[in-house]
Amino acid sequence: MSYMPIFTSISRGALAISLAAALAPVGAxxxxxxxxxxxxxxxxxxxxxxxxxxENAKDVPVAVTAIGGEKLDALNSSGLDIxxxxxxxxxxLVESSFGRxxxxxxxxxxxxxxxxxxxxxxxxxxxxxxxxxxxxxKSFPVFDLASVEVLRGPQGTLFGRNTPAGVVKLSSAAPTDxxxxxxxxxxxxxxxxxxxxxxxxxxxxxxSFRLSGLLQRRxxxxxxxxxxxxxxxxxxxxxxxxxxxxxxxESGDFKAVLSGHYRDLKGSPRVFRANIFxxxxxxxxxxxxxxxxxxxxxxxQSMKQGGGNLRMQxxxxxxxxxxxxxGFEKASVESTGDIDGGGCxxxxxxxxxxxxxxxxxxxxxxxxxxxxxSQEFRFATDDMNGIxxxxxxxxxxxxxxxxxxxxxLAGTKISNILHNNTNENIGVFASGEAKLTDALTVRGGxxxxxxxxxDTITLDPALAASxxxxxxxxxxxxxxNTARGKNLSWDVSATxxxxxxxxxxxxxxxxxxxxxxxDRVTFFSxxxxxxxxxxxxxxxxxxxxxxxxxxxxxxxxxxxxxDLQLTAVGGVGNSARLINVNKAVGYGVEANVEAQxxxxxxxxxxxxxxxxxxxxxxxxxxxxxxxxxxPTGSTFVDGGTTYSYLDGNDLxxxxxxxxxxxxxxxxxxxxxxxxxxxxxxxxxSVNYFLYSAAEFRGRSLLEGGLKIGYKSDHGYxxxxxxxxxxxxxxxxxxxxxxNLTGMINEPRIIGGMIKASF
Length: 758
Fold this sequence. Notes:
There is one protein chain. The chain is mainly β. The chain has a single domain, classed as Beta Barrel (Maltoporin, Chain A). Helix content is 4%, strand content 55%. It has 4 helices and 43 strands. The strands form 9 sheets. The protein has a 22-stranded antiparallel beta barrel. Strands 3-8-9-6-7 form a 5-stranded mixed sheet. A hairpin with a 2-residue loop joins β15 and β16.
């Protein structure tokens, strides 16, 4: 299936910019003051909602980092999807083997490398107070936001889904009772267009609206040198369109926001590149060229996603506030990729191990249709002489239908597996806080959770008699699996004010992830069920400010997870198998600092050290297929297959070090300022898989951005920008089932942007 971009020239891209501008700064970010205003007023305070109440970040006994305002705009300026958040806060990494439709999040080393649509992730993404469970739903574009908050450590007592690692919380800019709006558009390398706009204002007494939209697109920039296969001639382009409409109503003590959103994506799947690693090394082979691949399998990707939510609250004076949050989300996703990463094979005369050569052809895809409904009722009391309480109930229901299919070398579909899955979660929670003295505040919470999952697998009747299909499937179909779990999680914390500006805090919290089902049956996989995992986390730190020119926080943590769910991805076959290991541990330190040493200069820096280790001397997995890689851990051979023990290994995609920094300097000129903003993010080396191998130890990655422009007091801005300014290209993930296949990061993007607001 070929992909034809909607816009094929600069002139048409410019037309798209003009249309987006007709929608006519992101609404005031409550998480971070605007740098231009800060030049006169100082840093101000950061307000977060980590406790489900708006509070100063230093008063919340949770490690939390907020991104908003100009920093969020700059990071998202080059058409990237939500993966741009990776390494932009301490302990956070985001990656994908599906491109723009399937982000995987890791906090403090805890995450899930599974590539199946039913994968459970220990990091929850909460968009406008609605928890999104399916990984593909978590890919909704980031635009017109008030803030992004990253909460580290278990957050299960107050948030709607299992959150043993943490929460990424995105909050849309809200409707306003006065007319305001903005339009911003950029054009950059590869005809990359990033256009965004919003308009907000009153409709009637107490009724207001906000309409916002986004267009992101890029030309195909990777040339496919294979001329005889089924893959597109050019790859890595996309067109991603999204919109959101919000209606807000307020009358007396009653408030409500009704929100609806939609997304339409069409583009390339993740581009896999066969044999890009030097045998015995994690460096690229000679001849590697990011602009060229050799693929022969089908390549297509599309996604339509829509949903909405209704958030209501009513306040009873002197008592408290009742909240209701109703969410509904659904999507239809198609993604087909040439997962062997090659277009030539030894049995066709090519040399085993050469760049672009696969051991055998493998072309797979899936069609996924997740549908989720959630309902939360919550009551929060007013302050009762230093005591505040919250309690509520939560219900979640997911229906997930998807197909997994594969093709032969001629492009004929030879297998089609049908999945029909349900996932239901019920929770009851309560929390409270008490101000025991002027300096000491204690908090605690508890949550009871029950999970019920069922997966049913059948074979497409049209292919039931296929000999090739039966060779690929090692189990009898139809087949059903169930998983049930329940848990009581809790947290306790204390905050002590050393001074009005500096707080110490300590927190102990437990986390829970329900039992999971891996129902992949192609390539001789056998369905597996993993029992629930439980986490206990200890952390403490200091948060504060010095005057209005320095803000800081420092935390240290230790976590222990029993029965950790892990996914053995790849190996001898293109398979995924769920396992539980006895335990894993992690510990580290995290820091953030923001300073304004002089009125026009703002600096931020953040970083983390994150140690993770699997502790199970009996756990092992098969290593790479075809004997292509060089395992560096303890191995043994059984039946001709090499296995590697996991004890002592890092968790996958868990870098020891993450660091980020920004610098902004402005010089007043006329009725505005000339400014420069630069940002940098670093993550150290990572393991791609559960076992360790020389080729699959990802090299460290440093990416930087620069933006220089003029911002007028009259509401317009013009600037030039660059992302990945040093053009450092690294592998960020890999596939290990039949060759040394890797995936790379985004190349350097250079462009210009304009913005107008009122």
